[in-house]
């Protein structure tokens, strides 16, 4: 993937209004891999008694990260949309900590891109959530 | 014959609405997305009014897939929790005053969630309903569907599993 394409992918993600609303930042994107961070924010809390971030915010992060990984793949599509996404929640993210999602687009066919993703907080060895999804491959022409 | 007279309708409504408000109102993320719930008896409909910050693709434009997923997940969890609380609220085992003070019992936790995107979410209001297909002692299965203009043309469907809170025993 060219540096130019990386730049375009990064710009594309950062112009997404909802990605901005959730304060997402791309920290790495190349060749079918993307890492996006989401800082802790009280507005995203799902359980006010514990201050734990809502699973839905983690889902949005995973979905965006998965799409970014697809866009950055060497056989990169011109565009992509999620077909389906499954998310497994292993444990609650620790309140106050940034959530980091990493997604890998591990296979691309003419029409479908397959993605796996993991989300962690400061404890990188114990995932908060994992995800698997299929995305559309939209070709130019 | 001694039969208790039926409760006045406003007492019943107040109790049921208080339970719903207690479940939904205190959750920052639900407010962040602007989701609210309409109630007809024990049937809930999630309503998510369109807002610019929900957009995921500014060129179409379309609602962010993560927002749609979150909307389905919130609807599934609130619907399951509401049905789970229903009997205790109706019997008076859970006091309305406690609910209004924000004292909620522990709620189910999401184990996993799968979302299928069927159509792109247009820049307009979305609705969702969930059906609890099984509510066991430890696990529950819930299906949810979201739509916009046409009930028969859903934009997404979801299936979720939840871990139920442990009872006292």
TrEMBL record, chain A:
Domain of life of the native organism: Bacteria
CDD domains, sorted: PaaI_thioesterase
Gene Ontology MF, one: 1,4-dihydroxy-2-naphthoyl-CoA thioesterase activity
Cellular component, GO, one term: cytosol
Keyword hit for Hydrolase: yes
UniProt xrefs under InterPro entries: HotDog_dom_sf (IPR029069), PAAI_dom (IPR003736), Thioestr_dom (IPR006683)
All residue ranges annotated as the Thioesterase domain in the record: 51-125
Pfam families the UniProt entry points to: 4HBT
Keyword terms, alphabetized: Hydrolase
Protein name as catalogued: Thioesterase
Automatic annotation (TrEMBL), chain B:
A Pfam family of this chain: 4HBT_3
Residue stretches making up the Acyl-CoA thioesterase-like N-terminal HotDog domain: 63-162
CDD domains tied to this protein: PaaI_thioesterase (cd03443)
InterPro entries in alphabetical order: HotDog_dom_sf, TesB_ACOT8-like_N
Protein name per UniProt: Thioesterase
Species of the source: Roseivivax halodurans JCM 10272
């Amino acid at each position: 993937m060219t540096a130019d394409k990386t730049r375009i992918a990064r710009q594309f993600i950062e112009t997404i209004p909802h990605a901005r609303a959730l304060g997402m930042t791309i920290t790495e994107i190349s060749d079918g891999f993307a890492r996006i961070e989401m800082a802790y924010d009280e507005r995203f809390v799902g359980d006010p008694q514990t201050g734990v971030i809502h699973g839905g915010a983690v889902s949005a992060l995973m979905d965006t990260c998965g799409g970014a990984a697809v866009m950055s793949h060497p056989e990169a599509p011109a565009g992509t949309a999620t077909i389906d996404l499954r998310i497994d929640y292993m444990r609650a993210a620790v309140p106050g900590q940034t959530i980091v999602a990493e997604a890998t687009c591990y296979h691309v066919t003419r029409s479908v891109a397959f993605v796996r993703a993991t989300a962690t907080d400061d404890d990188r060895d114990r995932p908060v959530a994992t995800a698997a999804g299929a995305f559309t491959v939209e070709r130019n022409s | 014959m001694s039969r208790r007279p039926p409760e006045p309708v406003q007492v019943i409504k107040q109790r049921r609405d208080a339970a719903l408000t207690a479940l939904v109102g205190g959750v920052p993320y639900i407010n962040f997305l602007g989701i609210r719930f309409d109630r007809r008896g024990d049937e809930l409909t999630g309503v998510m009014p369109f807002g610019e910050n929900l957009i995921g693709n500014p060129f179409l434009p379309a609602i962010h897939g993560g927002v749609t997923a979150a909307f389905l997940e919130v609807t599934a969890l609130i619907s399951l929790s509401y049905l789970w609380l229903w009997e205790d609220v109706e019997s008076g085992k859970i006091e309305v005053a406690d609910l209004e003070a924000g004292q909620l019992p522990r709620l189910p936790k999401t184990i996993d969630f799968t979302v299928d995107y069927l159509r792109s979410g247009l820049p307009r209001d979305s609705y969702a309903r969930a059906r609890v297909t099984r509510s066991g002692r430890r696990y529950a299965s819930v299906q949810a569907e979201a739509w916009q203009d046409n009930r028969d043309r859903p934009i997404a469907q979801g299936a979720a599993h939840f871990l139920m809170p442990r009872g006292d025993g």
